[in-house]
Design brief:
26% strand; 3 strands; alpha+beta; 3 helices; 46% helix
């Protein structure tokens, strides 16, 4: 079997097109997934340090983080962020509930909606000195 010039050009072109498609999808999807993950991690940290802070302060911290990460959907919907503190002292807990939807628009060709429904509960520890 002899090899001819030009053989494999179609495979190379298809590979480049597939790589370009993957990069284009990643450019749209990665920032959305990253923002959701970072907001969830920040809420975990905020809930861990909630012992002496009022709920209003905790809510402000979560909203500041959402604004910083450009998670607009968590800011526009009133029920997207809910914070509760129960109990007192070392028997208390802080719960942050994140509930919102974000839509990724893949260049007008396809829209994908990510639903975030996270419940973060941390025990409240009082520092007794």
């Amino acid at each position: 079997m002899q090899k001819q010039r030009g053989e494999g050009k179609i495979g190379c072109i298809v590979s480049i097109l597939v790589l370009g498609l993957i990069i284009a999808v990643a450019i749209k999807a990665v920032p959305i997934y990253y923002g959701n993950s970072e907001l969830s991690d920040a809420c975990d940290f905020i809930a861990s340090g909630a012992s002496k802070k009022p709920i209003e302060t905790l809510e402000r911290e979560v909203k500041e983080k959402a604004r910083e990460l450009n998670v607009v959907e968590a800011l526009t919907d009133k029920s997207a962020i809910r914070i509760t503190k129960t109990g007192a002292g070392d028997a208390g807990t802080c719960t942050i509930i994140l509930r919102y939807k974000r839509t990724i628009d893949f260049y007008g060709a396809y829209k994908y909606t990510i639903v975030t429904d996270k419940r973060i509960t941390k025990p409240i520890f009082e520092n007794i000195s």
